[in-house]
Amino acid sequence: MVLALKQIQIDRLARIVRWLLAVVLVIWLARVLADSVLLWMAGPQQTPTVDPSMLRLTAINNEQGGALSPAEIERWKLFGIPPEQAPEQRAVDAPETRLRLELLGLFQNSTAEMARAIIAEQGKDAELFRPGDKVPGNAELVEVLGDRVILRRQGQLETLRLKEPELSGTVSASAPPPRRRSQPVVQESQPEPAQLLPDGDPAQQRAMIIQQLALEPVTEGAAEGYRITAGAPAAMLSSVGLRPGDQILSVNGHPLGEEQGDISALQEAMASGSASIEVQRGSRRFTVNYPP
User: Fold this and answer.
1) What is the pLDDT of residue 178?
2) Are residue 219 and residue 287 in the same domain, yes or no?
3) pLDDT band (50, 70, 90) for residue 130
4) 156 three-class SS
5) How many Cα atoms are found within 13 Å in the side-chain-facing hemisphere of 108?
6) 50 in a domain, yes or no?
């Protein structure tokens, strides 16, 4: 009997607990529902901030039904902003230098650092210079142009123009002509710029190089190369490892000895800034690369 009474009390207590739990759950759900309704009715409490660096697109309302014009699309910079190109720097026109120098040859290149100039102090051997090198007379080579070079001396820019060739056509080094003084350049006598080739007249440059390097053809009128004679500048020969008596057979695969092959080799070497020189010394053949 006692056990029956205890079981009845336990069942009654369990029903009370379940009822309390149900009431609490209903109250919690009602609270959540009320908060959701209030939040939906009130809306956000603050306007979200927009990072000004972020790209924003504005709606376009026009008569074409919202079509985008090319100008609008271009203003979006979808592919970024291209870097600004630095303006091309060219040396300003400078007065003629008073240094006792002669410009004997030029090797232009699209890369300014690869350009070269053959400069000689009057009465001395010629040497090869690049932009930034010191030249005789306490001057610095600044830039190599098509028909002249720009020097800097005591902070001032000066012009050294290409020495006019003394011979034209085929040049023989058997009897080199005497050195003559450079004539002053008269501005009125110069041809119009449209009549000048970008890198100078190749035929004149060929004749000048043959003369100044004291080259003589191995066989006159044949593409058998040139022989270096004793009158060649020693400094230039030592820079590429050559010596008098060597025969220069080809440059960059172009046989030397005829005008057309010589000009092709000269133009390719000036465009690339480098040369592969095939040389014969006695019975031995080898290749010299310039720059080394």
Assistant:
1) 38
2) yes
3) confident
4) strand
5) 16
6) no
User: What's the pLDDT at 85?
Assistant: 58
Phi first, then psi: give them for residue 14, nearest 5 degrees: -65, -40
Domain coverage including residue 288 = 199-292
**Nearest of 204, 242, 201 to residue 225 by alpha carbon:** 242
3-state secondary structure of 18: helix
User: Which is more confidently placed, 192 or 13?
Assistant: 13
Using the structure block, give the residue that is written with the tokens 């739990």. Answer: 21
Distance between CA atoms of residues 135 and 101, nearest Å: 9
Give dist(CA 73, CA 69) in Å, integer.
7
Structure letter (DSSP) for residue 194: G
- Look at residue 261 and tell me if it is in a domain: yes
Long-range contacts from 110-118, C-beta under 8 angstroms, 24+ separation: 110/271, 111/273, 112/143, 112/144, 114/273, 114/274, 115/143, 115/144, 115/273, 116/144, 117/141, 117/144, 117/149, 118/212, 118/236
Contact by Cβ (8 Å): 274, 290: yes
What's the pLDDT band for 179 if we cut at 50, 70, 90? very low
Q: What is the CATH number of the domain that holds 138?
A: 2.30.30.830
Yes or no: say if 142 and 130 are a contact pair by the CB < 8 Å rule. Answer: no
CA 210 → CA 86, 161, 165, 235, distances in Å? 39, 19, 10, 16
Q: Kindly state whether residue 193 falls inside one of the protein's structural domains.
A: no
User: 94 phi and psi, to 5 degrees?
Assistant: -120, 155
Q: Where are the beta strands (DSSP E) in 211-281?
A: 215-217, 226-228, 247-251, 254-255, 275-281
